[in-house]
């Protein structure tokens, strides 16, 4: 598959905007009607805490928490939709569920909320999948993600910040890596425009390359004169019989 599959569509912008808008809408409901959504977060190793597997990514503690997650989600989800369009919805859906389950298993006894675990899913998937494809555009995307969001890796370790859910971050990183292995992408190939780009190209058979010697010096090809062609003669072996036929009118002519 070549570069033609990377096509822009309205969903590249619409999907991230809708997703982030929905997060802000949930937060608006929370402060407008004084809803206590925290109890819908992940509470590890409890039956009631399992509901947070599906809801925790949409709940935030305050405006700063929501803002910090909104910008990365807009950028990463747009990149995911453009470069991995067929895998986007699966990565989002399974990323929420599996990162939530892992958090439920390894998390501390407290409510875990926020979309930061999903951010780690996106970062991990985009990075590892780009390296796995070995395609120059996707590798460049992976390196860009590392340069911009590489500092996030420190927040998967305990004791870095007691106020954040490092368990959710680690769960997102593991989930993104697992999804990058599970979802296969086509083999990306560069469009071949010239003969020398073919893998079986032999420079010794190329007319242009033959004008250079082994040291790279330009040489003139020997002039091959065409062989002189002589005309061909053909002898005729045909035999022709000639017969003289007297004029019948002379035989019937009366004597004077």
If you had to describe this structure to a student in words, what would you say it looks like?
One of its GO terms (cellular component) is membrane. Residues 53-182 form the Peptidase S54 rhomboid domain. By secondary structure, the chain is mostly helical. It has a single domain, classed as Rhomboid-like fold (Up-down Bundle), CATH 1.20.1540. 46% of the residues lie in helices and 0% in strands. The protein has helices at residues 11-32, 52-55, 63-83, 88-106, 116-133, 136-149, 166-182, 248-251. Helix 3 (63-83) runs parallel beside helix 5 (116-133) and helix 4 packs across helix 5 (116-133). It is elongated, with a radius of gyration of 40 Å.
Descriptive tags:
single chain, 256 residues, Rhomboid-like fold, serine-type endopeptidase activity, transmembrane, hydrolase
């Amino acid at each position: 598959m070549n570069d033609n599959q990377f096509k822009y569509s309205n969903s590249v912008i619409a999907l991230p905007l809708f997703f982030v808008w929905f997060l802000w809408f949930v937060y608006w409901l929370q402060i407008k009607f004084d809803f206590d959504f925290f109890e819908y977060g992940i509470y590890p190793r409890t039956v009631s805490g399992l509901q947070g597997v599906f809801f925790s990514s949409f709940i935030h503690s305050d405006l700063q928490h929501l803002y910090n997650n909104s910008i990365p989600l807009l950028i990463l989800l747009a990149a995911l939709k453009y470069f991995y369009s067929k895998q986007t919805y699966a990565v989002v859906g399974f990323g929420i569920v599996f990162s939530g389950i892992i958090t439920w298993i390894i998390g501390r006894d407290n409510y875990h909320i926020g979309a930061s675990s999903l951010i780690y899913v996106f970062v991990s998937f985009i990075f590892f999948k780009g390296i796995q494809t070995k395609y120059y555009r996707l590798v460049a995307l992976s390196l860009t993600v590392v340069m911009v969001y590489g500092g996030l890796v420190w927040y998967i370790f305990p004791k870095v910040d007691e106020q954040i859910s490092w368990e959710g971050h680690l769960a997102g990183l593991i989930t993104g890596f697992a999804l990058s292995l599970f979802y296969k992408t086509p083999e990306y190939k560069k469009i071949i425009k010239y003969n020398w780009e073919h893998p079986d190209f032999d420079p010794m058979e190329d007319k242009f390359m033959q004008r250079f010697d082994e040291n790279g010096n330009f040489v003139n090809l020997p002039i091959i004169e065409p062989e002189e062609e002589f005309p061909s003669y053909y002898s005729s072996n045909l035999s022709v019989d000639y017969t003289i036929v007297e004029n019948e009118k002379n035989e019937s002519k009366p004597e004077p």
